[in-house]
Amino acid sequence: MARSWNVEIQLFSADEVRSDEPVTTAHAVLTTAAGATLNGYGRARRNPEDQDIEEIGEELAAARALRDLADRLLRATSDDISAIEHHRVVLPR
Fold this sequence. Notes:
Elements: E1 6-13, E2 23-31, E3 37-45, H1 54-85
Antiparallel strand pairs: 1-2, 2-3
């Protein structure tokens, strides 16, 4: 039987977080089939001299949030295995 895990990504632009900086932030939330959640965060800052293309900032912030989420999931898995094995386990990236 297959199980589904869902990831939701919320994107916030500078005007939504009340910042004068050209920044886009992303919050990725993984929800497992059992209802457990894990969060990842990402940020993209546009050089003020670059064109203002919102989609590029969103893509970069989302990618960084997903990378952070993946790293946190690997750490959680490593911790779970360590608890079972009774020694430190480090999973490669």
